[in-house]
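Final report, Chapter 2: Outcomes

The project's central promise was a pipeline that accepts a single protein chain and returns its three-dimensional structure in a standardized token representation, suitable for archiving and comparison. That pipeline is now operational. To close this chapter, we reproduce one record exactly as it appears in the project archive, with the input sequence first and the structure output second.
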Amino acid sequence: MSTRSELHKVQDLNELHQHVYDSMTFSALRQQSQDNLEQSWPPYRRLIKTLSQLTHIPSYLLNNYVRTIVCLLLFGLMFPLNLLITLLTMILSYFCNLIHKKSSLPSSNPSRKRILISGGSTTKALHLCRSFYQAGHQIILVDESINWLTGHRWSNSVERFYVHPSPSKESDAYLTILANIVRREKINVFIPCCHSHIDERLQVALATHNCSIFYPRSDQTIFMSNKYAFIERTRSLNLSVPSSFLITSREQLLQFNYDCSYICKPATIDSLHHEKTIILPRSTPSETIEYINKLSISEHRPYLLQKFLSGQEYSTHVTAIDGRIKLFVCSPKSTYQHVDQPRILQWCMQYVETLNLTGHLSMKFIIDDHDEQVYAIECRSYVDSNIISFYNHPEVANAYFEHESSTMIVPLASARQIYWLPYELWQLVQNIRSRKKIIACLKKICFGKEAIWSWNDPFPFLLHYHIHFFYLLFANLFSKHIRFFNHVDCNMGRLF
């Protein structure tokens, strides 16, 4: 198959997949909530079903209400602690700057740019705002309408905040509003923090307003938004990837020769919903058949069957310009602390240079325990949360605008492990009987770096947790705005 025809096929596949998700009905969300209830802690499940019989409220709806109210109470209990931390930060920061005669204002920049950053409720967007602001640039922040109360809008680094419609549900309105913001604010550069296939269309629209977009070309993003296309493209470059197969029907899975364990997951990337990943085959043939029959697989929504590799997983963030890596961070899965992995770096450098990439890349790797080789699992064209590890690096902004420099920036050796305080406090409650886990959580809280808290920018820490999430959770008690969720994601600022 030619590269051109393959590009069109993958592009059509992505558009069809997006259409399937946009047309997701309330009944599907209701079923998802019911499934989550069935997989929950048995005593809790029995309690919800008993209350459902007594009150005649459907169990899936009652489950949503109870989870939402519990989360509201937990954030309420945290409020006095976070308020105290914020007040102490403001007082100590003021007197320290007064004593040392320092100013929290950034130095003037003769080549100052006006930068538009999307995904405003995410921690990674906040950190990019702070980095560009400290370098003397002016920041305009935007996000979806539902996130209009994100605490990040009150950051010292944000000049103005706007909301826009959902890119996936109202794409034309999204394009129009973003173009109007660019024109009104005289934006020089647009940096999207979260993946949206609509952002590819913005490249032409924003060019008429003399605004560039820091985003890969459309022929590059197609291969990144489809996992199987990425695997095939990467294999053609002689780079290591796991053995993978594209699955378009349940019959293919049922008839597949499972010579080893395989990971089964959606082949297309959806930034709005968490993926269901399973390992096949299961312990018994009947269980395998049962799992497969639950999957909604079709040519419009294919799955990827990928050989299971046992080993340490790593996630990386790459900022690339014209085939050169400008920012690089690599951390073991879910740790958010940079480690030196030369082989992963070499893999990324070869990939970026060969394809002459420009933009953000979020790449997942695994080092196989069997052959100790580095394998790429997937690649996405957005800012990875690992970029937060650059929180104390003064040269992040320069990596985006000093194109002639060949210097690659990695997090400073003094950068501490990143964590989100509500999540760590919840881990303390969950593991109250495990002394080892409690000590580990306390060490992270004491010696790590809270992701949102900043010495010179304290308000987002308080307002994001106790205004933004309070609004999302309170709105979730009303059927018009109901969103069945598995957990509160402090990093992304959303209910997932």
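Archive annotation: Residues 7 and 219 are 7 Å apart (CA to CA).
This record, like all others produced under the grant, will remain available to the consortium after the project formally closes.
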